[in-house]
Amino acid sequence: MKLSTWAKKQGIHYMTAWKWFSEGKLPVKAMQTPTGMIMVEEEALVVTAARCVIYCRVSNHSRKDELEYQVKRCSDFCAARGLVSDKTYKEIASGLNDNRREFWKAIDSKPTTVVVENKDRLTRFGFNYLERLLKERGCEILVINRDAEDKADILKDLTSVVYSFCAKLYGMRRAQNKARKAQEAIQAGEPVTERL
């Protein structure tokens, strides 16, 4: 069968399969015809990705049970595709937080495939940037439900964004007030106390 057909059956992107072929890392026997077409042996349809990881995330502790269901769905997806997952990374954190410990462990482990249930489980914003950058590193993101979104999570993340900006604004205002009071104390010849 053609390499593109084989890649589709394995649930991987054609360019990933082509890169594996050109680097001699394709897990099945394949040959290139004189016309340039790459043909793959049909009997070997199982991919064993040496560095396939699963990443699962929920926004808060009240949804902790959902995390285990997410892991099971991702594991079942991998089994159906013939992918062998090296590790599963689970996390309870906002998708807006760019400092998630388990997320970075998953990315830093240099996987060739990252399996997630929905795009927003990996990140709320900038999924396409992340997908493109990981593809440059030879890593493909497999999304089980590419279009699914959880409205409750989106609302919570929106609230988090508003809260974060309000806290920053309040902190800036507080710092300005402290500086103004210190300046007034200096001009009045009074000692500047540590806490204003």
Commentary on this structure:
This protein is an alpha/beta fold and 196 residues long. The protein has 3 domains: 3-40, no CATH class; 52-145, Rossmann fold; 150-196, no CATH class. 48% of the residues lie in helices and 17% in strands. The protein has 7 helices and 6 strands. It has helices spanning 3-10, 14-22, 64-81, 101-108, 119-122, 127-136, 151-187; strands at residues 30-32, 38-40, 52-58, 85-92, 113-118, 140-145. A 4-stranded parallel beta sheet has the order 4-3-5-6, sandwiched between helices. The chain has a two-stranded antiparallel ribbon with strand order 1-2. A hairpin with a 5-residue loop joins strand 1 and strand 2 (38-40). Helix 1 (3-10) crosses helix 2. The radius of gyration is 24 Å and the shape is elongated. The termini are far apart. The model is unreliable at 44-49 (pLDDT under 50).
Q: pLDDT below 50 for ≥5 consecutive residues: which ranges?
A: 44-49
Our measurement of the CA-to-CA distance between the termini, rounded to an integer number of angstroms, reads 75 Å
What CATH architecture of the largest domain do you see? 3-Layer(aba) Sandwich
In CATH, the topology of the largest domain is named Rossmann fold
Number of helices: 7
Number of domains: 3
Please write the CATH class name of the largest domain: Alpha Beta
Question: Based on helices, strands and strand pairing, what is the structural class?
Answer: alpha/beta
Arithmetic mean of pLDDT: 83
Largest sheet: 4 strands, parallel
Beta strand count: 6
Question: Reading side by side through the largest sheet, how are the strands ordered?
Answer: 4-3-5-6
Give, in order, the helices and strands. Answer: HHEEEHEHEHHEH
Strand content: 15-25%
Helix content: 40-55%
CATH superfamily of the largest domain: Resolvase, N-terminal catalytic domain
**Rg calculated over all Cα atoms:** 24 Å
* C-alpha geometry: elongated
